[in-house]
Amino acid sequence: MLLLCLTDRDPADSLPGLDLLPHEVRTSPLSLRVPETMAERFDAILIDGTLDARRARSACLGLADGAATPRVVVLPEVALTALTTEWGVSELLLPTASPAEIELRLRLLEQPATAAPPPAVQAAGVVIDESNFTARLFGRPLDLTYKEFELLHFLAAHPGRVFTREQLLSEVWGTDYFGGTRTVDVHVRRLRAKLGDHEGLISTVRGVGYGFARARVEDEE
């Protein structure tokens, strides 16, 4: 890896274990602002805070906000309480970190970013944000239990379709659920009560099961 170390001394003095690894290290003074175009040429930026945590913080804040290059701050244990998310660093290393630990933390920086949260489900005025576990009906928050939320989420994700009680039981409660289909009816009744004037969004198809926003889908067709 090509590393840029912001420090006012030899990097080997602030992070001795780094000297034993085969990475190419360039140095730059802590007080020098690193342009985005320069930062992007490196795989990671190390910020030396072993002598002065305040200057290290200033260096972190001075890094170009648009630069995607991961930042690693080196701090002694006595200065750890000063570190906050405001610094914008991706990793922390103690000066006493072993070569193996330094290597591991640097390699973890190369891992791909986590997947984006699933998009919100929107249908017939219902908006469900699975990542935040929230459900709204025309902007009004719905106070749902976990299973009510899961049931509404599944139905709203398939507007116009009809599902049997057995299908809903399998999809929402899981194949290992030993209760009867009566529990589906109970939860549908509770959901309708919380939908209020819009309870008709969940329709009953006699002899089959339940569907969501069926009338609206049929009207659009």
UniProtKB/TrEMBL annotation:
Please provide the record's keywords in A-Z order: Activator, DNA-binding, Phosphoprotein, Transcription, Transcription regulation, Two-component regulatory system
Q: Where are the transmembrane segments?
A: none
Q: Which GO terms describe its cellular component?
A: cytosol; protein-DNA complex
Task: Report the domain of life of the source organism.
Answer: Bacteria
Q: Where's DNA bound on this chain? A: 118-214
**InterPro entries attached to this UniProt entry:** GlnR_N, OmpR/PhoB-type_DNA-bd, Sig_transdc_resp-reg_C-effctor, WalR-like, WH-like_DNA-bd_sf
- Name of this protein: Winged-helix domain-containing protein
Answer yes or no on keyword Acyltransferase: no
Quote one Gene Ontology molecular function term.
Answer: transcription cis-regulatory region binding
Source organism of this protein record: Leucobacter triazinivorans
**OmpR/PhoB-type domain mapped to chain residues:** 118-214
